[in-house]
């Protein structure tokens, strides 16, 4: 067995094999971290070294992390290109909707959303790391970008809820089209300023009904039309236009309520900058006044984690990195790629954060990277 000087062992680390005080006395199993308490005891017992056939590592390697695929920058670029094409397609769709909806049918939207569902399923970690476009010049592009991201988050939530593929397509189509009623209102209604007049508020409240009627006139199925009407309803009955509460709103509507709210918080607006993904997650989890469905919120946080994919973070050991994947066993401890560090074989270095080892100390803003 190899000898490890106690003074050189980092607190919080794990060993890949059992650690022994001597050849016959086990001290640590691979599931136990080398803690400050253990270091203090070894010092008290005057042990200067321990023995193991394993090696040190910064995190407990689970079956999940053993199968984790390395982060691929080229796939992030491909995801951004995929998003650019989808946002352009959706912008053109919205322009058609704004001129009456001629030539639009559910089948063409469902085919595009089916492609999106497949892409999200295969490239979730890359699409969530793709840089987002800022505020766009025209209303159609602005709402299209919002709805594309709402559809992506909705599909991720729906997949976590084990919705079958045909229902994921319905959900994705509903999310992609949920704000089209805004296109029937005066251009730039709430893009130029943050405070609306009473008249503007009355107009704004009309957009769910306008969207519902527009989708219905294009013969979209009820499952897709209804969320356009209900996406501003709230569990506590405080939403609009009908003040629905609890189980009176459809499941797709409840999912889009959460997804759309999160996207709105984390995207640039004319009157404010985007909030950090972590801030959007924590604000939703507070669920002030019980606005959102708890089961949908749970699926949301379990599928995106407390520190969502793409969020830059500082770790408890002082290093900085980016969340590249979630931990299905605990949303508080994501997988983090360390900035400017590589393994001996040249791969990007990542760690699986944990309660007993290295953990996320805080999220980082763009100006801290």
What does this structure look like?
It is a single chain. This protein has three domains: 2-57, no CATH class; 72-304, Hypothetical protein af1432 (Orthogonal Bundle), CATH 1.10.3210; 312-368, no CATH class. 43% of the residues lie in helices and 13% in strands. It is built from twelve helices and eleven strands. The protein has a five-stranded antiparallel β-sheet with strand order 10-9-8-7-11, with no helix packed on it. Helix 4 packs across helix 5 (139-160). The two termini are 42 Å apart.
Fold topology:
Elements lengths: L1 E4 L8 E2 L3 E4 L2 E4 L7 H9 L4 E4 L3 E2 L5 H4 L6 H26 L7 H22 L11 H22 L4 H13 L20 H8 L1 H11 L4 H9 L20 H15 L11 H10 L7 H11 L7 E4 L4 E6 L9 E8 L5 E5 L7 E4 L6
Antiparallel strand pairs: 1-5, 2-6, 3-4, 3-5, 7-8, 7-11, 8-9, 9-10
**Strands side by side in the biggest sheet:** 10-9-8-7-11
Low-confidence stretches: none
Strand proportion, as a percent range, falls in: 5-15%
- Taking all Cα atoms into account, the compactness measure Rg is 25 Å
What integer is the average pLDDT?
88
Classification by helices and strands: alpha+beta
Shape field:
elongated
| CATH 2nd-level architecture of the largest domain | Orthogonal Bundle
* Biggest sheet architecture: 5 strands, antiparallel
Distance between the termini: 42 Å
Helix content: 40-55%
Write the H/E string, N to C: EEEEHEEHHHHHHHHHHHEEEEE
CATH class of the largest domain: Mainly Alpha
CATH fold annotation of the largest domain: Hypothetical protein af1432
The total tally of domains equals: 3
CATH superfamily of the largest domain: Hypothetical protein af1432
Give me the number of helical elements.
Answer: 12
- How many β strands by DSSP? 11
